[in-house]
Amino acid sequence: MAPPLSRGTCPEAGLDTAELSRIVPELAGFVRPAPGHPWCAGAVVLAGRGRTVALHEALGWAVRYEGYDEDADRGRELPPERWVPARPDTVFDLASLTKLFTARLAAAHLDLDAAVASYIPEFAAAGKEAVTVRQLLDHTSGLRAEAPFYDQPTAAARAALLWDEAPLHPPGTARIYSDLNLIAAQYALERATGRLLDDLVRSDITGPYGMTDTCFNPPPGMLPRIAATEDQRRPWGRLDRGMVHGVVHDENAYAMAGVSGHAGLFSTAWDLALLCRALLDEGGPWPGFEVDQPSFMGELAGRGAVGHTGFTGTSLVLDPASDSFLVLLTNSVHPSRTWREGSAPRAAAATRLARALPAGA
């Protein structure tokens, strides 16, 4: 049986070499310190078309800083001999790319047009009785962006916080991108299947697709390959944890023991390329994906491209029209989320892939 993906050249992938070869030098400009600071400490980028990965390179540093000096707005660098270079197999905290996994599971195991309360009766409180699973996945439930699960002392208290949450708008009338939606989807999945989210991800997605580096709560042996994230402290953070490395960055996911529907997964660019290939092979619909977003898809937007981003500096884009895909993983919150600005590197890389496609693709 042929592997789902193989490394190859731009001509083998039907991509323009000159255009695709500009991605890494342009990314390097975002990794090198600017007059203020770099967009990210390190990055891994992967691009391909069909079953050929034509670009898979790393640049910068997976670990560079030991902390953040908020007064000087500077990272406190480790001694250079302790810097860890990013490698193609560096493992990144995916942040909200986790939502894509939860949405895929929800589409497989739940009736998208059923009320969430049909799976979790407690969810019906505070005016949520009509919210459907589909509204969770497309962020039209009316729920606010997030809630302080990290301040709750027990799992029961965290669940009660969600049950008591009232929509800001009537369900189906407004779109609010919300972590609460995918947390609710997690509760519904676990209630409907009698299985935990990490088990579902492993059995339904990462196992079948051969994604051996993708997991919640990565084991200690993986730590040397994991990119560090943030010197997490108040007031910019919600918890005082110091430099986060090898455990989930998102505070609510951390409070949920590292496994949450909205954040918590770690992965590599190659593993995510395997996911992209599987999704392209299966075709849409694309539950949980953003569609044609120029802010991070660049010139791939407008052709039916789908994708998502993650707060830590991650993103993926699939272009079904050309059978191409792009994965960009960075640690743009290392050493502080205050350095995280916009999506220019994501959009620039996607534009280069768009321009590398043959005419009419």
Describe the structure.
- The chain is an alpha+beta fold and 361 residues long.
- The protein folds into 2 domains: 6-90 and 268-356, no CATH class; 101-202, Methane Monooxygenase Hydroxylase, Chain G, domain 1 (Up-down Bundle), CATH 1.20.58.
- The chain is 29% helix and 18% strand.
- Helix 3 packs antiparallel against helix 12 and helix 4 (98-109) crosses helix 7 (179-193).
- The longest helix is centred in the middle third of the chain and has 15 residues, at 179-193.
- The two termini are 28 Å apart.
Our estimate of the beta-strand percent is 15-25%
Task: Using the alpha-carbon principal axes, give the shape.
Answer: globular
SSE order, one letter for each helix or strand: EHHHEEEEEEHHHHHEEEHEHEHEEEH
Q: How many H/I helical runs?
A: 12
In oligomeric terms, what are we looking at?
Answer: single chain
Helix content: 25-40%
Mean pLDDT: 96
For the secondary structure, the number of strands is 15
Largest sheet: 8 strands, mixed
Give the N-terminus to C-terminus distance in angstroms: 28 Å
Instruction: Name the poorly predicted regions.
Output: none
